[in-house]
Amino acid sequence: MKKINKSMKIGLCIIAMVLLLKNLSVPLPDFIQGLGLGIGIGLELLGIYHLNHDTSKIKAFKRNLIKKRFNK
């Protein structure tokens, strides 16, 4: 089994926190609850994609985009 990566860990933590707060009777607005669950699921899917595919081109593209943006 492959090692769990950082984005999957963060996604699981976000989902766990939202569900924990919901079950502890802390009134969360529906928007905040949906946003937390959506971001958590998105990060988990991104982590699963990173396990099976080479993402070096995406990382290089993001790095070059940031360099172009902040070097001006």
List the keywords.
single chain, 72 residues, mainly alpha, 3 helices
Strand content: under 5%
Structural class call reads: mainly alpha
Low-confidence stretches: none
The number of helical runs is 3
Helix percent reads: over 70%
Determine the mean pLDDT: 89
What does the overall shape look like?
flat
Give the SSE order as H and E letters.
HHH
Largest β-sheet summary? none
First-residue to last-residue Cα separation: 44 Å
Number of strands: 0
Cα-atom Rg, whole angstroms?
16 Å
Description:
By secondary structure, this protein is mostly helical. Helix content is 78%, strand content 0%. The chain is built from three helices and no strands. It has helices at 6-23, 30-52, 56-70. The longest helix is centred in the middle third of the chain and has 23 residues, at 30-52. The protein is flat, with a radius of gyration of 16 Å. The mean pLDDT is 89.
Q: How is the topology of this model organized?
A:
Elements: H1 6-23, H2 30-52, H3 56-70
Task: Describe the structure concisely for a colleague.
The protein is mostly helical and 72 residues long.
